[in-house]
Amino acid sequence: MQQDEAHSDEDVPYYEDVSPGSGALPPVAWLPGSDARRLSLNGTWRFRLSPTATTEDEGFARPEYDDSAWAGLAVPGHWVLQGHGAPAYTNTGYPFPVDPPRMPDENPTGDHRYAFELPADWPAGATVLRFGGVESCARVWLNGTELGHFKGSRLPHEFEVGALLRPGPNVLAVRVHQWSSGSYLEDQDQWWLPGVFREVELRQRPEGAVRDVFVHAGYDHRTGDGTLRVDCAPAGRVTVPELGLDLATGESATVPVAPWTAETPRLYDAELATPGERVRLRIGFRTVAVEDGLLKVNGRRLLLRGVNRHEFHPAHGRALTADVMRRDLLLMKQHNINAVRTSHYPPHPAFLELCDELGLWVVDECDLETHGFAQQGWRDNPVDDERWTPALLDRARRMVERDKNHPSVIMWSLGNECGTGRGLSAMAAWMRERDPSRPLHYEGDPSCADTDVYSRMYADHAEVERIGRRTEEPLRDAALDARRRSLPFVLCEYAHAMGNGPGGLSDYQRLFETYERCQGGFVWEWIDHGLRQETADGIPYHAYGGDFGEELHDGNFVCDGLVFPERTPSPGLVEYKKVIEPVRIEAVGPDTAPGAVRVTNLQDFADLSALVFPWRYEVEGRPVAEGTLAVPPLLPGESAELKLPPPADSPPVGEALWTVRAVLAEDTAWAAAGHEVAWGQLPAGPRPVPRPLTSAVAPRRGEGGTIALGPGVFDAATGVLSGFDGRAVTGPRLDVWRAPTDNDEGAPWQPGQRCGPEWRRIGLHRMRHRTDAVVAAGDALIVRTRVAPAATALGFRVVHRWTSDGAALRVEVAVTPEGDWPAPLPRLGLRMGVDGDLSAVRWFGGGPGEAYPDTSAAARVGRWALSVDELQTPYVRPQENGARIGVRWAELRRPDGTGLRIEGEPDFFLTARRWTTEELDAARHTPDLVPGDRVWLHLDHAQHGIGSQSCGPGVLSRYRLDAAPATFAFTFRPAE
Ligand code: GAL
Q1: How many domains does the chain have?
Q2: Pocket of ligand 1 (CB under 6 A)
Q3: Based on the domain organization, do 17 and 37 belong to the same domain?
Q4: Residue of 371, 578, 584, 923 with fewest CB within 10 Å of its CB?
Q5: Helix (H, G, I), strand (E, B) or coil at 557
Q6: What residues are labeled active site?
């Protein structure tokens, strides 16, 4: 046979044809609480992997087939995470040739078999076999009879199997192809993870059971009434005992209700009874509308404090347990997050149940992305090719039908990054017709022709401000422009949380609070998709793109979340929590001694009655007095100014601060009483100016080419401090280098200068030091140096002026840049090495977590104590981290209590680690960081901001560290 005959274009195999599949039942609502029987088919299945799609015939589907040589495989699960093949990560590039709908012969195919017993009392009649999600194409047999095939990985598919089931042993066989035509529609930025990754189950369907149900539960904020209508096939009755409702399906009833909102997720338990089934419903009454140019729920504008959430677990990929879903939601609620975009596919339906219960606004996104076509100018884009429209509509239907009964879902999203096309319009038209109660979202079409909100990703602050004023760049089409200008605005992605960052969150939040059109957004993204691995020596770490031998990959771009892979909060999440806090607590009155506090309720629906407001008065970080502030139960948007009790110790000895916190008065479903929701700090008096040390001793020549000054010993040739208080030290010397963060490195497609590459070009990672003078001038030792990279005339003149009162040593540093610096500096300060056993750190200043100039909202002034190891932030790809901001003084101690104290004039950024910046910069994964025998201290006068240029705007000008003359001082003392 000739090649041409074997593969004519018309004759593509089922997994490559553009159809959504064959044989499956029409999509219906997800109904978890039913009295009809269910049988879970999750468990250990038998599994065999083939490298191509066509290696063997379908004989394996016969019940009697001998699979004893096959491996065991956990279902739900991905075979590539269970020792068969490997995961692969690409962002936008398809990991196969772009030749839709075809796939290469290399198409890993997993044959699955599961033998199960049907309980003897399983009723005869209809039974549905349900797959919650299979990536990417499955062909299914039960007891040797083929049922059909399907595509649409993160969507459910059901088959009628009643006639095929038999009492006792049954065998389900599923052939899963990693690649299919569906893969062209699933080019989301994530790991490619084939397999049966959501549950498989049998659902008995009694005669007269619910085929489908659509709950319509609106709320009229003017009357306080809810209107309920439950459409069901077949007809039945609905009862809502709490509301005294008992009505026929299809009939409406209007009664006073408490509405559902994300802040007050009030659900009413209901029961739907049809002749064959009783189903539990949980009803939330709310009305979503776009009116007056705003997205409103129950008549009020929303402010979305959101995140983009992918389904991810570091060991199980997208196979999540209910516990993991709940953990995500509890963490979100505890961090003031009120919205989720289910990027970029419908999540497990149990997740939406939890959103209903705990209260989150959800943008439910369809399983659709064709981003890889952008590389060819969107030529052949499936969303603009009507042959693919049935597949697109199938995806739209499977999402809307499954999820239509969740009050938490307030918008449907057509998909992500598909460009534009007729297929998208067809999806939008179908969704509007089927569910007119929810607005539509899609970011990829700037004209917004099919959507009800104007959505963008990564727009910079200046552009968001223009959009807020409705003065954005016009579209060419005047009618479309006028329409778009009238729409509410959301950032469906912003603040790229890759590595250290994102910076600039507060600045976005200010815009959202200033311009009513700007209704907030969704940080990209919730979790780092780092896969759990171990080194040969058993050290755990997380892997990213390229770690599995992928030919094509996008490295650690897959690690850009607010939580680390194991779901521990990163500093970015702590910052976000502070920035989006639903209550603002701020000083009123003069900056230095306000004496009063303004409390503002920034929620959209709830008053403040769930919160209490403890205050504390501290001097030098030590508590002096505390109490509770009586804050009235302010309504949304209201403020009150409240007096704080006058300090008992005026004038205080040291720096005095009020801290007022808003904490939960009682336990909630998502946090215990006492959980902190918001806080504010205000000075209780002017900040004391540090007393400069009075010099009392003069430098003198010591032994062996040294100079002694008080507790310090200097190298007479270089003027570098080599000993302090009888211990060897290295440095301190001027340092401007930091191990570039992902945001420093920037993305090639982002506008603006990319600092990381520019810093390396200039040579900031290989500075040379020259000593120009080491001279005694009265009581002072003056050391002049020039610090500069090779191959350029750029550099810094540095004058160090060392003095001592006999017990302590003070250095005043004056830095003057030379040359025309083409880029901001990473940092400006001193680096010094001290004994490795100085491992316990205490400081007075910003903390407890990491903070940089544009990530500092969450740093509060106090006395903090952490070990050097605890100061590190374990970014999946090591990079600059761990600075503490606004440090007035710090002490590093040995286990025996001796140590070093450092005081700053002015306050400084403190960083301490067991490896050098060069080692940090060279590390690719966390186990590459091996502690040395020194602690490296960075005492920085300034740091450059962080920004979010890894996929967004760079550092705002007010957080830039430009090369400019600077002076600062540090005093070193033996710790007492
Ligand atoms: C967006 C995309 C996301 C993710 C992000 C960068 O363009 O929608 O899926 O790739 O950029 O991390």
Answers
A1: 6
A2: 91, 188-189, 344, 416-417, 457, 493, 496, 524, 557, 560, 951
A3: yes
A4: 584
A5: helix
A6: 417, 493
